[in-house]
């Protein structure tokens, strides 16, 4: 049993209010002690060497003098309200650290110290008689009587006193046997190419997918050439727990069909990132069936239900693994911040990274780089996790001595330049394509400057950023802008009589609302800090001058993680997209990807994919497609500028209200497959692009393929094939409709085993509707690649023979030595 340091409010007050000698003694302590190569901050840990005493700061969890006055009144204010999770504005302070009385705070007065002081305020809650029968019986639930005990124990665990959990975590944070990455330096890799580790993975995965493809297409394995095997990627949308459960069902159906073994990449947003985390963990060991069983065992309790959440955070062995990231971040980085995303991530990890029974929790599941174990030999697809940074230029500063600018032209430029930057995280690398730069995943969390990590004072670097925080970032939809928030409730406002004027007024301020985040996103160290002149021109200047960046749910930009799959070097041939978004037709995330394809100049992307807009004629679609094609390099540059605005324009688009949209019937209709003959999308839709060079003539629109046009997949100039499977209602699974079933809401965090079975059954049924179409698409792409390879080989053979003829050696073939 761990020995906890005794904590006494009374003894602390006696030391402070005693004689002058006692006061002098109590106000002096040792806060910076070097033990070997490790410097500890805060209270002494274990052995105490003889060193000069230094002035003492406030204790981490001691009472203030004000609170010790006899006439002080106890408060019944809700304790969490006193824990300020939103950091103060550090804009005017150097390095993001606020100043006090003109002096910057010391090491112990920064991240960890501030967190400790704020958390100390929760001790007031323990002085209130919460367990009184009347309070519990009429106002508070039964479990509330245990809250004071939970808080006191959590305070002891985080007190950093000798023997506390926080002290143990901080000591192990510098142990290279527990955290090997702390002994290695890291530097920023500036390149558009894939990292060497991913290239090695691709060569190994190719051998696995070659065998899997032969089985999937019922072909003799010896007849399948590795060059003919298409690179297939599978992506899952965001949507919280709905996307997690539905995505599990969709991928499980693909696995049973043999398709999943042919996949090279998986990518996710929000809930699909959570799915990838569970799949590449000791919980499932690469088994989607075990992921499903785990969800049934753990999804029945809300992530924020206090008794269960506190119990997991305070009980061994789960407490140590869950709180390690928090202690390491705040104690190791003096400028780090603690916010709602950190709390959210802790709650998610406590529920889903801990298996049933708690005792089988594995510490290796709490680092993303450890997922290399599950892809080391190419036995599983490479997971790609996504997050975005919202680049918002300062509209009030014109760049000259920080003078505010009221220029309407400057504000208009700023509106056009606000966009989302995509970051991807694999078990190998944390990368941003817009920066053309990245760092090893195990180096996430440490500070960088001028392309190299900042040398640590303690002799060791910080451990890798833990999964709980990343889970919070991946699913932090609550960090959306005010524009996103209003988009969620706009149908309700439009349905209320007399609120049309209010809707028009709010919509008129959409540009301003799209720049305000009521809740701060998660903060991570910026590896591009100080790299001015070393990164491409696409890198915003603001990134080069800030030591930290804020990341949030990638669904703020596009709820389908297609962008990372189009990165040069990955050469994806087929993208299978499972879309479990909240409003698939209105948001039309496939169409949003068009802007990215134009901006990056992606060859082979099928222009014009996605759901047709309501009331839009085929002529209008053709006109839009013509505008999307650049006929010359001059037009291409102009389109590049326009593409950067595409995402913000998508957010600002005002959807025309329809009378039945907000009714039960209208919501159900949104998730009903349409008439495919009239252009609506069904359970499975396939598009194929073209690799033809652009000319003065615009490319024809990309149309959904049917049996009569399926031959286009085998054309030599065919491009990327998109297989789209939206999460729609299916009559084969009655009683569940994504538009009307309450528990399928994005904000629902409780699913019973029966509800999970229903969600999975619907996903399986929808996959079954398009099973043969998917198989036919993969076969057609394989045949096309095989045909092109044979043509290349025949041409190479003919060219070689022609060279021999020119050298007069063709007639000598078969004569002379054994090498001719």
From TrEMBL:
Q: Which keywords accompany this UniProt record?
A: Hydrolase, Lipid degradation, Lipid metabolism
An example GO biological process term is: glycerophospholipid catabolic process
InterPro entries of this UniProt entry? Answer: Acyl_Trfase/lysoPLipase, LysoPLipase_cat_dom
Query: Its Gene Ontology molecular function terms?
Result: phosphatidylcholine lysophospholipase activity; phospholipase A2 activity
Q: What class of enzyme is it?
A: hydrolase
The family database entries (CDD domains) matched by this protein are listed as: cPLA2_like
User: Residue limits of the PLA2c domain?
Assistant: 180-811
Q: Which reaction does it catalyse?
A: a 1-acyl-sn-glycero-3-phosphocholine + H2O = sn-glycerol 3-phosphocholine + a fatty acid + H(+)
Compositional bias of kind Basic and acidic residues:
621-664
> An example Gene Ontology cellular component term from the record?
cytosol
Q: Where is this region: Disordered?
A: 45-106, 607-680
Q: Which SUPFAM superfamilies does the UniProt record give?
A: FabD/lysophospholipase-like
Q: What is its EC number?
A: 3.1.1.5
User: What does the sequence similarity comment in the record state about its family?
Assistant: Belongs to the lysophospholipase family.
| UniProt name for this protein | Lysophospholipase
Top-down, what is the taxonomic lineage of the species of origin?
A: Eukaryota, Fungi, Dikarya, Ascomycota, Pezizomycotina
